[in-house]
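#struct-help
A.M.: can someone run this one for me? Single chain, 180 residues.
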Amino acid sequence: MSILTISGSLRGDSVNRKLLAEAAKLYGGEVVEADLNLPLYDGDLEAAEGLPAKVKTLADQVLSAEAILISTPEYNKAPSGVLKNALDWLSRDSRKVLSGKPVAVMSAAAGRTGGETAQYVLRNFLAPLRANVVAGPAICVAFAGKEFETGRLENERYLIALEELTTLLKDTVASQNIPA
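D.P.: on it. C-alpha cells below:
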C-alpha cells in the first residue's frame, strides 16, 4: 500500500511537509512524496508538446497511490500557487487521475487560523476534479513554526485529530475495495 503526499510548499523544511510526514506515519505503508516543481500551466505548451514529463510522473503517482494526503500553506487566504498549478496540470490528464481518489486535506500556517481559509478553498479546487475528499476533522495547525519547533508535532490535540483523519482515509480506501 502506498500513500502520496503533496505539499503546497516547495521549501524543504516546510511545516506542511512536516505535517504530512506525521500524517503519513499514522497512515502507515509506503510513502511517496510528490514533486510540485512543475512548469507553469501553459495551454500553448500543452498543445505543442503534450503534458510535460514531470506532470506525467505526478499523474502516474496519483494513479498508483491508494490515497493522497495534501497539506497547504495559506498565502493571502488561498492555497499556494504551486499547488493550484499542479492541480491545473493534473486536470489536463485524460485519465482523470483524481476522480474518485481518496484524499485527506490539511494545512499548517503561521497565523492563528492555521490555514483554515486556504483549506476551504483547496476543497473547492478539488471538487471539479471529483476527488473523494474525506470530510474528517479539519487539521489547521496554527502558529505552525512554534508547533514544529522540535521538528515534530507534539501537540496532543493535533495528533488525535490527525489519527482520526488518517483512520477515516483508510476506511474510505477500504470501502472502495482498493487493494492494499
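A.M.: thanks! The beta strands are 2-7, 30-33, 67-72, 102-108, 132-133, 139-141.
D.P.: also worth noting: Residues 2-175 form a domain with the Rossmann fold fold (CATH 3.40.50.360).
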